[in-house]
Amino acid sequence: MAARTALITGISGQDGAYLAELLLAKGYRVHGLTRHVSGAGVARLPGAAWREAEIQGRLQLHLGDLLDGTSLTRLLEAVRPDEVYHLAAQSHVAVSFGVPEYTFDCNALGTLRLLEAIRGLGLIGHTRFYQASTSELFGAVTERPQRESTPFRPRSPYAISKLAAHWHAVNHREAYGLFACCGILFNHESPRRGEAFVSRKISLGLARIDAGLQDCLRLGNLEARRDWGHARDYVEAQWLMLQQPAPDDYVIATGEQYSVREFFQAAAEEAGFDLAWEGEGIDCVARATAVPSGSRARAGQVLLRIDPAHLRPSEVPDLCGDAGKARTQLGWQPRTDFRALVREMVAHDRAVVRGAG
Ligand code: NAP
Ligand code: G4F
């Protein structure tokens, strides 16, 4: 049987890198959309897997952009993929307040361009489509935990753009019969997470403080609560959705919730710091009462301060998912717990920072 062909938009991102690895291991031919401005390129794909796949001609990158419908149509026409994993997006919530029109163009219209290209090329009966929806759709939540039936109450330009993309995918399923699945994924992190997201900002920041390269971390809202899983586990759910007999939408989450403060506390402990919390609100600081041996940081040093610049105009305070449907119908469950995730990120960034020093 011929190898199945997948197209991943956003292959240079966190999820794209893990998904490309997963699909290559399953014997797929993988095509990735990358844009000209990409800084990391495929740097997040581990070297060995990337070289081996390139040698075998099973991984191919193509220039394109969600803002350029022609490039999307041309690519889909050339590749005629069995499966499209649409992961590309302006994915930073805080950034979306600064560039709301761009965010909508990229995330909402970009998705529509892709869906209409599939339809226009007559690929509806051939191509299965995964849409990267998000727990941000639940926003100002109306019930806990959030499941597929929970109403959407988006609270940022990012979430609104993703809401439009979500409904376009659903509409192409209902109106035209496209096999389209929306994965409503809660926060998922990893050592490949972008450095501007809070988990990676913390793991990398602590490693830099330990090495004497940074004085302290400046964060925004410490009390926001998130349901944090590992990206490696979550891309498996993306693949499973497209292997089902019928398309559907699924919440993917761990069902456990921790605040940003708890993430920082756990990461500091994993890095070998003892902490004392002092002050309230924007005056809150975390001070080191003990530091790891060999550290360039010192006992008494303030490791964390609040910077109002990182507070958002509107916040999503409280997310926690119920992935019961995915567990029952996909046989999916997370393998990595919160503490193991934090440990892996902290250890990775310590090794990276020490290696660079
Ligand atoms: P990410 O690391 O930010 O990756 C985003 C990807 O999109 C990158 O490859 C980026 O390319 C690409 N991209 C951005 N703008 C583009 C454009 N105009 N044209 C083509 N490509 C573009 O995101 P992620 O964490 O892997 O998340 C994957 C998807 O899941 C995103 O859609 C995100 O919104 C959604 N999601 C993420 C989470 C999470 O917790 N991670 C949860 C729910 C949903 P460059 O390398 O060139 O920047
Ligand atoms: O890490 P974050 O930026 O992730 P956020 O906003 O939850 O969005 C991520 O998860 C979504 C799924 O729910 C995805 F759809 C989206 O694409 C993205 O991957 O922020 C997490 C929390 C927020 O409440 C934020 O206000 O951390 C808080 N926070 C506190 N200080 C900070 C900071 N966030 C960032 N990025 N930087 C800070 O300094």
Describe the protein in words:
- The protein has helices at 14-25, 47-55, 69-79, 93-98, 100-120, 157-176, 198-210, 231-241, 260-270, 324-330, 338-356; strands at 5-9, 29-34, 59-63, 83-86, 128-134, 179-185, 188-189, 217-219, 225-226, 229-230, 250-252, 258-259, 274-278, 285-290, 302-306.
- The chain is α/β, with parallel strands linked by helices and 357 residues long.
- β2, α2 and β3 (59-63) form a beta-alpha-beta unit.
- The chain binds NADP nicotinamide-adenine-dinucleotide phosphate and ligand G4F.
- Residues 91, 93-94, 134-136, 186-187, 196-199, 201, 219-221, 224, 226, 260, 310, 312, 315, 319 line the site of ligand G4F.
Question: What is the mean pLDDT?
Answer: 95
CA-to-CA gap between the ends?
49 Å
Helix content: 25-40%
Rg calculated over all Cα atoms? 21 Å
Structural class: alpha/beta
Strand fraction equals 15-25%
Number of strands: 15
Number of helices: 11
What is the chain-wise order of helices and strands? EHEHEHEHHEHEEHEEEHEEHEEEHH
**Main sheet properties:** 7 strands, parallel
Characterize the overall form: globular
Write out the strand line-up for the largest beta sheet, numbering strands in chain order.
Answer: 3-2-1-4-5-6-11
Ligands bound to this protein structure: NADP nicotinamide-adenine-dinucleotide phosphate, ligand G4F
